[in-house]
């Protein structure tokens, strides 16, 4: 089993609700806190899920693209074998990459090894922290089954994020990746990330209102 | 990335300790024990200092007891073992030198220590060589450059200590000439390695946020600024003029110091000065090695200022500042 999140870049509107819900849930959760240096004046610091905003294309043919970026829970996670203490590990039962804070010495080599820059160093506790895929939610028997999903998936207002098992060919995530050409970030670096993105579809050509009748006549008349 | 002081001290001092011990093992047959012992003691101080510096790189010492638990996969775990063995062997060699041990045992101890040192230096270099995400370091030149800096700086330190101890000029002359030749070779290796570093920046420019060949311009990293506090691998890039000056300084100190040392045999104070210059060059080299390293995650956190020569997709530093 390899749990993962698929993000449809057509649906993501960059509202950052996943970014905020991640920080909110995990700051209070068992793997937190996700600290800020000066939260009431300069809310910056540790984020396990960052929404990168990009402008694609060249002027005037440009469009905005939002890229949610958190731990990719890679099949061959490069952060795991470099860890000298075994603090970074990949769970065999569900493929989630986690950090055991009790074993972490804070050397940060795993942060260098991660190609995606999704591990963050907590200076207060001296350990490296990262997205846990909300493992505490996934395995919380007190939650109803439909809520046992990562906080970012649950909070997404456009349902751009889908959670599931990538190793199960019948799962929704597998079907989406297969049907819509799901892609990974920097596959050439060999980490085999489990997180996939569904590519943007081409934007249809825009037609001015005064040209519409002529175009319909031309195509369907 | 942000150059960590602890790693600067660890890698430079340990590299120099290895270089000194290897040099002494090669020169020892021609020298009395009393002349070699001070140099071994200096190597021990350097090695122990490097080992002590490594503790400052750990932020949770309570977990240090697990540091050997990933020997099978982690070069850092192997470094802890090999560096520890090397420092212990250096201490044992020094102790043997002061005991009535036979010359054969003393020479064997030196040889074993030199081999352990080379293994430790190789393992340390492999930590950096085997990280594909660090585009500047993931190259075949990382190991020879890193080991070369250690061997040359250590040989220079050994030459300086032998000069102060009054070693015969015949032995010192050969050693000093060898340091000069090795310094020239090292300069070539460093210049070749810097082309890899430049290639890493070019690689970054070709990636377009990891999304393909279309031009992308980074507008927002997701927070008010790049995560400098929490992710040291995306520390602000070294400005090009500073990089150029540092490279010149490294060549002058490492190569120039080595060549000066090659001609300093009749004047021991000059040998000491040249060795100090080489060691300073080793620190400069290592600082730039860390500071100019390109990590793949800079694609999404980059702060490189947009210039006229930069391709479309390169953001302005202003984009990230509130």
Provide a compact summary of the structure.
The complex is a heterodimer of chains A (221) and B (322). By secondary structure, chain A is α+β, with helices and mostly antiparallel strands. Helices cover 23% and strands 23% of the residues of chain A.
Describe this structure in words.
The complex is a heterodimer of chains A (221) and B (322). Helices cover 23% and strands 23% of the residues of chain A. By secondary structure, chain A is α+β, with helices and mostly antiparallel strands. Chain A has a three-stranded mixed β-sheet with strand order 10-1-11. In chain A, strand 4 and strand 5 form a beta hairpin. By secondary structure, chain B is an all-alpha fold. Chain B has one domain: Up-down Bundle (Formate dehydrogenase/DMSO reductase fold). Helix content of chain B is 66%, strand content 2%. Chain B contains nine helices and one strand; from the N terminus they run ααααααβααα. In chain B, helix 4 packs antiparallel against helix 5 and helix 5 packs antiparallel against helix 6. The chains are: A alpha+beta (221), B mainly alpha (322). At the A-B interface, strand 3, strand 4, strand 5, helix 2 and helix 3 of A face helix 3, strand 1 and helix 9 of B.
Summarize the topology.
The complex is a heterodimer of chains A (221) and B (322).
Chain A: E1 3-8, H1 17-28, E2 36-38, E3 42-45, E4 50-58, E5 61-69, H2 79-82, E6 88-90, E7 97-99, H3 109-113, E8 120-122, E9 127-129, H4 135-138, H5 151-155, E10 161-165, H6 172-180, E11 196-198, H7 209-220
Parallel strand pairs in A: 1-11
Antiparallel strand pairs in A: 1-10, 2-3, 4-5, 6-7, 8-9
Chain B: H1 5-27, H2 33-57, H3 75-97, H4 103-129, H5 142-165, H6 169-207, E1 216-220, H7 240-262, H8 268-291, H9 298-301
């Amino acid at each position: 089993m390899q749990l993962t999140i698929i993000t449809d870049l057509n649906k993501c509107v960059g509202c950052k609700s996943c970014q905020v819900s991640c920080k909110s849930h995990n700051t209070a959760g068992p793997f937190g806190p996700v600290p800020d240096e000066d939260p009431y004046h300069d809310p910056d610091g540790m984020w396990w899920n960052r929404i990168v905003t990009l402008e694609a294309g060249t002027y005037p043919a440009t469009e905005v693209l939002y890229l949610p970026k958190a731990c990719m829970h890679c099949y061959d996670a490069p952060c795991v074998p470099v860890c000298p203490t075994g603090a970074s590990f990949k769970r065999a039962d569900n493929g989630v990459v986690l950090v055991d804070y009790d074993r972490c010495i804070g050397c940060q080599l795993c942060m260098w090894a991660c190609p995606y820059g999704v591990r963050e160093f907590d200076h207060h506790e001296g350990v490296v922290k990262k997205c846990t895929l909300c493992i505490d939610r996934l395995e919380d028997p007190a939650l109803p089954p439909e809520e046992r999903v990562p906080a970012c998936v649950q909070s997404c207002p456009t349902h751009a994020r889908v959670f599931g098992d990538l190793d199960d060919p019948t799962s929704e995530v597998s079907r989406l990746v297969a049907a819509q050409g799901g892609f990974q970030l920097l596959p050439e670096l060999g980490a085999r990330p489990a997180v996939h993105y569904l590519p943007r579809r081409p934007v249809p050509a825009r037609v001015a209102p005064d040209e519409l009748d002529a175009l319909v006549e031309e195509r369907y008349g | 990335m942000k150059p960590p002081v602890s790693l600067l001290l660890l890698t430079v001092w340990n590299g120099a300790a290895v270089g000194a011990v290897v040099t002494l093992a090669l020169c020892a047959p021609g020298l009395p024990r009393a002349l070699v012992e001070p140099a071994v003691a200096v190597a021990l101080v350097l090695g122990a200092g490097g080992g002590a510096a490594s503790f400052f790189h750990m932020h949770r010492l309570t977990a240090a007891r697990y540091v050997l638990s990933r020997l099978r996969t982690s070069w850092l775990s192997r470094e802890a073992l090999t560096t520890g063995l090397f420092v212990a062997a250096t201490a044992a060699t020094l102790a043997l030198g002061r005991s009535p041990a036979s010359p054969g045992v003393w020479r064997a101890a030196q040889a074993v220590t030199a081999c352990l040192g080379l293994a430790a230096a190789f393992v340390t270099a492999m930590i950096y060589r085997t990280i594909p995400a660090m585009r500047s370091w993931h190259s075949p030149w990382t190991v020879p450059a890193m080991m070369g800096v250690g061997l040359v700086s250590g040989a220079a330190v050994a030459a300086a200590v032998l000069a102060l101890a009054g070693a015969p000029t015949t032995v010192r002359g050969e050693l000093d000439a060898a340091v000069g030749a090795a310094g020239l070779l090292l300069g070539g290796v460093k210049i070749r390695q810097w082309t890899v570093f430049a290639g890493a920046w070019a690689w970054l420019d070709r990636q377009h946020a990891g999304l393909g060949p279309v031009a992308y311009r980074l507008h927002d990293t997701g927070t008010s600024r790049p995560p400098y506090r929490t992710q040291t691998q995306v520390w602000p890039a070294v400005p090009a003029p500073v990089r150029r000056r540092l490279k010149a300084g490294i060549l002058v100190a490492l190569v120039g110091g080595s060549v000066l040392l090659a001609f300093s045999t009749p004047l021991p104070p000059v040998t000491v000065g040249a060795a100090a210059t080489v060691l300073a060059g080793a620190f400069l080299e290592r600082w730039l090695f860390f500071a100019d390293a390109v990590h793949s995650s800079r694609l999404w956190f980059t702060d490189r200022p947009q210039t006229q020569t930069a391709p479309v997709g390169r953001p302005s530093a202003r984009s990230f500042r509130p």
